[in-house]
Design brief:
- Helices cover 71% and strands 0% of the residues.
- With 235 residues, the protein is mostly helical.
- Helix 2 (19-36) packs across helix 5 and helix 6 packs antiparallel against helix 7 (164-182).
Length: 235
């Protein structure tokens, strides 16, 4: 269920869902994270777990998770019924929308008192924290929104006779719970307050994904992480 809802593909709303526009929109953030990873440790769980999965297929280079993201979006574009060209206006609008959709996440973080610690970003340096936040926005949305909602939705819509909207909402909630639990695989101890924030944030990002597409979901998540890094990380 790649997001896409009812908008016409040649409208602004439709173009923001197009995989090629999503790829071009997230590519600078992806490149910045991967280049930055040469200068600081790659401590994000999501790309490391993608590396483990890829290693089972004989592919073990550290840059391959980024390649996987790019190839997935290119494959989605290749199989699309209608292949729209890159739209500069759509890309600019996606950036503005991502900033606007980020604002409720900041409010949610303030309300739940988890703004400065919810994402587990490194606090050693602002540049490292910002780049890590971008990487988290890309790879976590790739796994929990494009994968857990988009790919699972495609399978379920073929197997279950339920409205796409209902399937999307169920998957958004399920992926949000998994998203919340996922953050405790590492050394961080489980706490209900941080877990509740992450579930609510994951559900919100799932709804953004369903309504506005993968690129804007990534932008919203990444920009929020950058904001947290800027506020909380030292120079």
């Amino acid at each position: 269920m790649p997001s896409g809802m009812e908008a016409k593909s040649d409208s602004y709303l439709g173009r923001t869902h197009q995989p090629l526009n999503c790829l071009v929109f997230i590519l600078p953030m992806l490149a910045a994270y991967e280049i930055g990873a040469f200068f600081f440790p790659k401590n994000l769980l999501a790309p490391r777990h993608l590396e483990i999965v890829l290693a089972h297929f004989g592919a073990s280079a550290s840059y391959l998770p980024g390649v996987l993201v790019v190839l997935t979006l290119l494959a989605w574009y290749g199989f699309s019924a209608r292949r729209e060209p890159i739209s500069g206006k759509a890309l600019a609008g996606m950036a503005v929308e991502s900033l606007l959709w980020m604002l409720p996440m900041i409010v949610l973080g303030l309300v739940t008192h988890r703004l400065l610690s919810a994402q587990g970003l490194p606090l050693g340096g602002r540049s490292e924290a910002i780049l890590t936040g971008m990487g988290a926005g890309i790879y976590e949305e790739f796994i929990f929104r494009l994968g857990a909602i988009g790919l699972a939705g495609l399978v379920l819509t073929k197997a279950v006779r339920l409205p796409r909207a209902a399937i999307g909402l169920v998957l958004a909630l399920a992926s949000a719970v998994l998203f919340g639990l996922y953050h405790y695989i590492g050394p961080e101890s489980f706490q209900w307050r941080s877990f509740s924030f992450r579930v609510l944030a994951g559900l919100y990002l799932g709804l953004v994904y369903l309504a506005r597409g993968f690129g804007i979901a990534v932008g919203t998540h990444a920009f929020y992480n950058v904001y947290v890094a800027w506020v909380s990380a030292g120079d």
